[in-house]
Amino acid sequence: MAADFYEVLGVPRSASQEEIQRAYRKLARSYHPDVNKDPGAEDRFKEISEAYQVLSDPETRRRYDAFGPDFRQVPPDVDPETWARARAAGAGAGFGGRGAPAWDFGGGDFAGTDFEDLLGGIFAGRRGGRRWGPVRGADQEAELTVTVEDAYRGARRTLTLPSGRRVDVTIPAGVTEGQRIRLAGQGGQGGDGAPAGDLYLIVRFAPHPRYKVQGRDIHVALPLAPWEAALGATVAIDTPGGEAKVRVPAGTPSGRRLRLRGRGLPNPRGTPGDLLAEARIMVPSELTDEERRLYEELSSVSRFDPRSRR
């Protein structure tokens, strides 16, 4: 007997799409063959992936809820309520073979009913009606983690899917957090030779030691010496696109953001993002005798009070 997909993922039949996704991610991390070397982990992982493939797609899930394990074989025009009524009436045949099925009505309100008519003529091979083909594979989703540099320049990557299958991915320059990359025909396999569904990769940015991305804008810290902030300066800063020059106005305080327009993530269809450099005034942890003398001299002549409310 085929396993119930809801039981495989450990969720109730009323589970939301978010609950199904969370359950899948938790199980996939535990049973992925790259992580779990138990002999039965791979089979368990494939079972989990199949369950998620079906339940993550709303239309495929609806058919599974309506028709159970045979949902891939039931032609698209069969109405779930009609199917349920036929089942309840004791119709004991499947969809295999040629022509209409041999129904065993077992009496009741449906005795004498022509179930070929009731089910919309889906078995009309003998009457010249249309024949339904196999059902297309379900679309699937997976997360694709990229670096800020990959998002800026574009890249080629090989991704290992939850099923263990590997696919080559082109990351276009200018992708943003949450964007979906479509790989046609790389989703769930169709039944009986039907085309496969599509695979959608959801872009997620990996944590970066220097950059933080918001939309297409890139935020970065800009360390400054006290005299650079006080007197003004032009300083170099690294960006994903290479080194850039930042003009620091005299009197720049810590926390001030200096904007470099167009130096954020590129936009293939419009205006690129900006790079925002946040000033952070740094002081030396150790001083030479001369540096200490100069700081002490500055302290004695300066009227600047950083704690003043003015």
Automatic annotation (TrEMBL):
SMART domains: DnaJ. SUPFAM superfamilies: Chaperone J-domain, HSP40/DnaJ peptide-binding domain. Gene3D superfamilies: DnaJ domain, Urease metallochaperone UreE, N-terminal domain. Pfam families: DnaJ, DnaJ_C. It comes from the Bacteria. PROSITE patterns: DNAJ_1 (PS00636), DNAJ_2 (PS50076). The keyword Chaperone applies. It comes from Microtetraspora fusca. This is DnaJ C-terminal domain-containing protein. The keyword Lyase does not apply. InterPro entries: DnaJ_C, DnaJ_domain, DnaJ_domain_CS, HSP40/DnaJ_pept-bd, J_dom_sf. Keywords: Chaperone. Transmembrane segments: none annotated. Residues 4-68 form the J domain. CDD domains: DnaJ (cd06257), DnaJ_C (cd10747).
